[in-house]
Amino acid sequence: MPLIDYSFLSKILPKAKIKKSFRKAKKSYLNRVRLATSLFFFGMGFCFSTWASRIPDMKSMLQLNEAELGTMLFALPIGQLVAMPFSGRIVTKYGSRNIAILGLFFYAICLTLLGLASTSWHLADGLFLFGFFGNFCNIAVNTQGVYTQQLFDKPIIGSFHGSWSLAGFCGALVGLLMLAFKLTPFQHFLVAFGFVVIILLTNYKYIIKAKSKQEEEKSSYSFWKKPDKTLLWLGVICFCGMASEGIMFDWSGVYFKEIIKAPGALVVLGYTTFMISMASGRFLSDILVGKYGAKKILIISGLVISSGLYMAVLLPYMIPCMIAFMLVGFGVSNVVPIIFNVAGNNKNVPTGIALTIVSSISFLGFLIGPPLIGFIAELTSLRYSFAIIGVFGVFISLLVLKLKIFK
Questions:
Q1: 305 partner at 20 to 30 Å CA-CA among 5, 134, 203, 336?
Q2: Predicted model pTM
Q3: Predicted confidence (pLDDT) per residue in 173-192, tens digit
């Protein structure tokens, strides 16, 4: 039985049988569905990268030290945690299409609220809402990615995550432009909001209105009553990868400003090189896995992540650090697409539930990692905090070697 109900294709093929309609549908229509899904990933990534590109400015505007910034950033994972227990059920009940559209819209609204923060507590409140709606958006959009994958014979999951990473690169460039024009964070965030609204208005019609397969609809599986150890370990691997990724998003600009002493707008160079490398790696992910296998690529990726972070610590100069951040970007680029694909094909747990479990654990790493850097940096230094986080890449390689699910 197909993963989803393709009855939405009946508009272009009214006489076709549903179980075969996706193979007979016009290629141009399917590509348009794929583009719409990619743009939703892009919009989600653009919102987050827009925020990340202005963190150094928000830190300066609110006169926060490293520990205070770390505390404020911790509001993001709290919002994620609050939404986590029921976001998956809401996506299932009301459909990933509806939640993806509403989630991305409110995610962009919360971005603009961050620009209005005049005190640290205003910023914390805004980050809480940003994390809350980000959780809904993440689960719904990733579910759409799985559904869209079912329309194609070739692997395309990596390209969706590549779109998210590409948005990070574009967000950094736009951030550089906004700094050049001396726009305030609120003005910058308002421009980003308008861009996301355009994405929604031009693509919502092509987002799949899909139904879960019958087994998932009737499933009584409860992760808390019968946890799947494989999914837990996959979540931990993804946690390590996304913690490293989140650190690059939130602290690369601060690292270049305070450790590298990069002048003016050049503080975004580390973040930009990281995003270029990560976006490129994710678009290549499907090809690399097909040629060398998921296990080998994940092991190498973990070692590359650690190598990049330690290089940045040992060689705190502009060119070496740009190369180091590129290594980290390439390393983390393969982790999420591979792990999500493996989790989605778990034979013991329905696909939707498996993705919710792994994505929830992994995004905790993405959101907890940056605040952790702030606390460690306050106790030691920012350089030493990067060195401590460098062990996450080694953990990825060791865990992949341990799990039998990787061949």
A1: 134
A2: 0.76
A3: 898 888 888 888 899 999 99
How many angstroms separate the CA atoms of 181 and 212, rounded?
47
Residue (of 16, 34, 124) closest to 79 by Cα position: 124
What integer pLDDT is reported at residue 351 of this predicted model? 66
Distance between CA atoms of residues 340 and 367, nearest Å = 18
pLDDT of residue 151: 81
Read off the DSSP letter of residue 252. Answer: H
Percent of the chain whose predicted confidence (pLDDT) is above 90 = 30
Strand partners of residue 212: 4
Decide: 352 and 212 in contact? Cβ < 8 Å.
Answer: yes
Q: Nearest CA to 377 among 367, 392, 389, 394? A: 389
Place of tokens 């494989």: 230
Place of tokens 């980000």: 134
Q: What would the pLDDT profile of 334-391 be if each residue is shown by its tens digit?
A: 998 889 878 876 777 766 677 778 887 887 787 677 778 888 888 878 888 888 888 9
Helices (H), 54-116: 55-61, 66-73, 75-94, 96-115
- Give φ, ψ of 403 to 5 degrees: -75, 130
In the 8-state DSSP scheme, what is residue 227?
Answer: -
14, exposed or middle or buried, with CB in 10 Å at 0-12, 13-18, 19+? exposed
**Cβ(244)–Cβ(331) under 8 Å?**
yes
